[in-house]
Design a protein that fits this description.
By secondary structure, the protein is of the alpha/beta class. The chain folds into three domains: 8-128, 3-Layer(aba) Sandwich (Rossmann fold), CATH 3.40.50; 154-314, Hypothetical protein af1432, CATH 1.10.3210.10; 325-385, Molybdopterin biosynthesis moea protein, domain 2. The chain has 17 helices and ten strands. It has helices spanning 15-25, 37-46, 64-74, 89-97, 111-153, 155-158, 161-175, 181-189, 192-195, 199-206, 213-220, 222-230, 237-244, 267-281, 289-296, 304-314, 362-374; strands at residues 8-11, 31-34, 52-56, 79-84, 103-106, 325-329, 339-340, 344-345, 352-354, 381-385. The longest helix is centred in the N-terminal third of the chain and has 43 residues, at 111-153.
Length: 397
């Protein structure tokens, strides 16, 4: 029997069933047994790499079908199997249709049948994970292209994405988030709602000027606009909900007014809230002690554990050694892969053309060339340039 590292979850109030799973599979798999559906859902939220979920039909509380449906929202790539003594066509139909179960097994189940079902479920999970990874890479590339294009035409709204993405990945590593796709998508797409706001409101907010109640309401509702734009796009439904709650304070403040509080707010939403406010509080060169002190004035708005972790890993951003060579280039010398160290500004008006930390692509370089020909760009431009590995020389003959 092949050893698997991804968890197997069993939810059944029958102690004998739970002991049987541990006896049969505990030496080869990470088997996690629960008698209560709510406890199992909490485990799934912390272990989103779960491979297979077994549930009984008559589960106390919400019931097995509703539990499997709820688990799908948390770990969609997991294979879900129902164990039950119910044999009616109605029970089978409800399990397969409403619970989105992969397989229906009748109790009592022979050990060899259970082992075969588990192997089949694991193969299904591996294929689901492979397909999802490929789809995520494709979608991530499309979103990156979209954000690059939007950033060219609305640089003020999208100027923070490159910086916040780097910070989010460092923070995710510190707190143990292994899969960061949803976090990266949320960061990149977070300015969409702001891009639709009147520029005068954004300008007043960024200059720390007072806003009218109506203007503040418009600003607070930008996450809702983002959700409306994204919620009908497959694979981005969950990201849209994370963004919708990204203005919600840990203490229950902010938008939406009747939203969750504390740890009930998704962790990615809490990260976005913290890093977005930190970005606005930070000077151009990055977060410093004063920026964190500004957040501490209203520290109840932020998850205290995330705030402490961010302080630990982000305060040394300025002192962190650059991995690449710093070069001063004219536009004609820029290369795809160069990372902007400073904002690129228009020559005379000082209008923002492209924000710092942006990784240049052939499209953005051409955009800079066109902008320079029509309006003018301040040069030289400081970039971080990574050496390109030389191609190995093939021996002749």
């Amino acid at each position: 029997m092949e050893t698997a590292t991804d968890p197997i979850v069993v939810v059944d109030p029958d102690t004998a069933v739970r002991k049987a799973f541990q006896r049969l599979f505990g030496d080869h798999y990470k088997v996690n047994c629960f008698s209560d559906s709510e406890e199992a859902l909490q485990f799934l939220k912390q272990n989103t790499n779960t491979a297979v979920i077994f549930s009984c039909f008559n589960l106390p509380g919400r019931g097995g079908t509703a539990f499997l449906r709820a688990s799908e929202m948390i770990v969609p790539q997991a294979a879900r199997l129902m164990l039950t003594r119910e044999t009616s066509a109605e029970a089978v139909k409800k399990t397969l249709n409403e619970g989105r179960a992969f397989m229906f097994l009748e109790k009592p189940c022979r050990p060899e049948d259970l082992a075969n079902a588990l192997e089949t479920a694991l193969a299904y999970h591996r294929q689901q994970a492979k397909d999802r990874a490929m789809l995520e890479r494709t979608l991530a590339g499309s979103v990156k292209l979209l954000i690059d294009m939007l950033g060219l035409f609305h640089p003020e709204a999208f100027r923070r994405t490159a910086t916040v993405r780097k910070q989010a990945l460092r923070l995710a590593k510190e707190i143990g988030i292994r899969k960061t796709w949803e976090l990266e998508m949320a960061v990149m797409l977070s300015p969409l709602g702001e891009a639709l706001l009147p520029k005068q409101i954004l300008a007043r907010y960024r200059a720390a000027r007072s806003l009218t109640e109506q203007e503040r309401d418009v600003l607070d509702r930008s996450p809702g606009q983002t959700r409306d734009l994204l919620q009908n796009i497959p694979q981005l439904e969950k990201v849209s909900e994370l963004l919708f709650l990204s203005a919600r304070g840990f203490d229950g403040s902010g938008f939406p007014k009747d939203g969750p509080t504390g740890t009930e707010i998704p962790k990615i939403s809490r990260i976005l809230k913290l890093l977005t406010d930190l970005w606005y509080a930070s000077p151009e060169h990055g977060p410093d002690v004063a920026a964190f002190e500004a957040l501490m004035i209203k520290k109840s708005k932020y998850d205290p554990e995330l705030l402490e972790a961010a302080r630990k890993v982000l305060l040394d951003d300025v002192a962190e050694d650059r991995k690449g060579q710093i070069s001063e280039c004219y536009i004609r010398s820029l290369r795809p892969g160069d990372i902007l160290i400073d904002d690129v500004l228009a020559e005379n008006s000082h209008e923002l053309v492209l924000s710092r930390d942006h990784t240049l692509t052939p499209t953005t370089i051409r955009r800079l060339e066109h902008f320079h020909h029509t309006t003018g760009v301040r040069q030289p431009i400081r970039v971080e340039r990574h050496a390109v590995p030389e191609e190995p020389v093939k021996a002749s003959g």
